[in-house]
Amino acid sequence: MSTPVIDISDVSKRFVIRKEKSLKERLVNFGRSNLHKDDFWALRDVNVTIGSGTTVGLIGPNGSGKSTLLKLIGGIIQPNTGSVQLRGRLAALLELGAGFHPDLTGRENVYLNAAILGISRAQTDRYFDAIVDFSGIEPFIDTQVKFYSSGMYVRLAFSVAVHVDPDILLVDEVLAVGDEPFQRKCMERIRGFQHEGRTIVLVTHSLDQVAELCDRALVLERGRVVADGEPQQALRVLRADFESTRQNEIERAQARATATAAGALPAGRIGWAAVVDDRTGEQVTEVRTGDSIRVRVQVEPEGSLSDWVLGVGLQTAMGTTVFGTNTQLLDVETPRLDGPAMFDFRLPDINLGEGLYTVRADLVGRDGHEIHRVLEATSLQVQGDGRSQGPLAVDSTFQRA
Amino acid sequence: MTIESQSRAERLAAEPMRPAGPRPGFVTGTWRSVADLHAHRELLDLLIRRELKARYKDSVLGFFWSLAKPLAMLLVYYVAIGKFLGAEQVPGRPGGIPGFAIFIFSGLTAWQLFSDIVVGGTGSIVANSGLVKKVYVPREVYPLSVVGAALFNFAIQMVILLGATVLMGEIPTGRRWGYFFLALAVLIVWSTAVGLLLAAVNVYLRDVQYLIEILIMILMWASPILYAWKFVGSHIKGLLLDLYLSNPMTLVVLGFQRSLWVAGSDEPYPAGLGKMLAAALAVSVLALWICQRVFARLQSNFAQEL
Description:
Distance between the termini of chain A: 49 Å
Largest sheet of chain B: none
Oligomer: heterodimer
CATH architecture of the largest domain in chain A: 3-Layer(aba) Sandwich
Radius of gyration of chain A: 27 Å
Strand content of chain B: under 5%
CATH topology of the largest domain in chain A: Rossmann fold
Distance between the termini of chain B: 42 Å
Strand content of chain A: 25-35%
Number of helices of chain B: 14
Helix content of chain A: 25-40%
Helix content of chain B: over 70%
Radius of gyration of chain B: 23 Å
Shape of chain A: globular
Number of domains of chain A: 2
Largest interface: A-B, 53 and 46 residues
Order of helices and strands of chain A: EHEEHEEHHHEHEHEEHEEEEEEEE
C-alpha cells in the first residue's frame, strides 16, 4: 500500500434544508421552526483511504453525494461526524467560475487564484507564462473575466490548478465545458500527473473517462459507497444500477398507460438469453475466435404481443458495444406472439478478440418505445489465438512491402 | 511506479496528516488561526488590492469617489449644522464650536473608518462566496481585506485632514499624537472585532447587512461627531453619562478631536480620557479574540449556507 494522502473516516454529512432565510420568516415561525426544516443526509458513513499516486473516479447518479465528498476533501465544508485528513498541497477545480473575481482581469485573477492555492507572488511570476500558454487565451488575459465565455473560464482555472505543483488535484465535472482539443490537453496533463505520482480525485459522468484514466473508482448512491475498486467492476455496479432505475421508469410508464386504458402499451419481457454453439445447438460460455455461434433469446409476451422488434448486442467489459443488430435492421417480420417463444440470432465466424463479453438483449415496440431490456443477459468468454489485442480479431500477417 | 512518484510518496509520507479545513478547538485553535493567517498574508495583500481595484473598476473618476463621500458629508454638515444651526463659533457669537470644519472632519474620518470596516466586513463573506466555495483558506482573510482597504481610504482622508490643519495654521504637534494613536488602535481593533462577528452572522441571517447600515446611521449620533462633548454633559448625568462614555466609538472620536482639533484645545474633555482609551483598548482586544473564536466556530458551515 502506498502512502495514504487522503483519509476519510466515518464521514457523514447532513444538510438541513431550511425553507426560510429572512429574519421576519424566522420570527413568525419561531418555535415551529422544525416544520420548516428538512434533513438530508448527503453522505452516510463513508470510509475511504486514498494512496499517493492513485487516480480515483467518483461516479454515481445525480445527487448521490459525489460533489459533497469532493468538497469535504477540499475542506470547504465540514463533516457532521468523522474526519477528513490530508497530506500535501491541494488544488481544486470545483465550481465553474468560482475563485475568479469578475471585475478583475485574467492576469490579476491568475495571481489571486495562485495565492489562494498557497503560491507566492514570485513563484507565480515564474509560472505565469506557462499558465497563460497552456490556457490558450493569451489575447484575452488583460480582459476582465466577466467578459469570458464559460470555456475560457475553465481553461484559465484548470491551467492555474495544474501549474501550481499540487500533490492532490480535485476535479469536478467542470472540464466538460472545454472544447475537445482542450479536453484532450487536460487528459494529457492528467496522465502526466499520474506519471509524476500525484493523486487525482475526479468527479465525472463520463464513464469512458473513468475506465480510461482511473486506477480506482468509487460508486456513490444516496450518500453511501456501494462499490469501491477496479473501475471495470465499479462501472458494472453503476450500469446495473442505472439499468434498474430505467426499468422502474418503464414499468411505471406501462402501468400508467394501462391505467388510462386508452392505448395499453404492449407488454412482455425477455425471459432469458444464452449463447449456443451453431452446429451442436448446445449452450456454451466459452468460444474461440472464428467460431460460429447463435444468440438464443426467449421472449415472454404478456397476453399477446405483435409489432415487436428484438435486438441483441455484444459489449466489452468496459461497456462499449462492439456489435449489435435487431430484427428491424435484419428486415425480418416478427410474428404475433401468444405465448413464450425462442428466437436465434446466428452469428457466423465471430471475429472477436480475446476477452470477456456481455450479451445484451432488448425488446422494443415498432414505434420505438422500449418494452424490456436486459443489459447483461449472459456473458461470453472468447479465447483468442494470442496473435492480436483488442475486441476486433483480424488474421493479420507481417511482411516487407 | 516511476522514480518521481516514489520520491513524492516518500516526501508525503514524512509529512504529518492535517485535517482538511478549519482547525477545531475553541482556545487551542487561536494560535493555529493566527499561524494560518500569517501563512496566507500574500493572499491578504492581493485581496486588499482587489478590494481597492474592483470597487471603482469601471468608473471614470475611480478613486475620487472614495473621497467624494466624506467631503460631501463634511460640506453638508458644515453648512447645515455649523452655519444654519449656528454650532460654529463666530465672532460675536460665543459658546459655539471653534474650528468647526476640523472638528467635524476629525470625527467624521474616525466614524467613516468604523463604518467602512463594519459595513464592508459584514458583507465580506457573502460577497466573496465564489472564493469561499472554491478552496479552503482561513476565511478571516475576507473581513481583514476589508479592514486593509478601509485603512487605505482612511489614510487618504487623513492626508486631506492634515492638509487642512496646515492651511488653517493649526498643526497638531507633540503629545497630542499619543491620543491619536491610542484612539486609532481602539478603533481598528474594535471595528475589526465587530466586523468579524457580523460577517459570520450575516452568512446565516442576511438581514444583518441591511440592519447594520441603519444602525450605523443611528449610532453616528451616539458619539460627539456632529455636536461637541460640552453639550452632552449638560443634558445627561449619572448612569446615562457613564453609558455614553462606555461606547468605545465615543472615546475614539474624543481621542481624535483631542489630538487633531487644535482650535478646541481649551474645550472640555471627560476626565481621564487617556485611561479610558487604554481600558477600551483592552476590552477591544478581548472582544476581538472572542469574535474571532465565534467566527472560527461558525465558519465550518459557510460554504453550504452560501
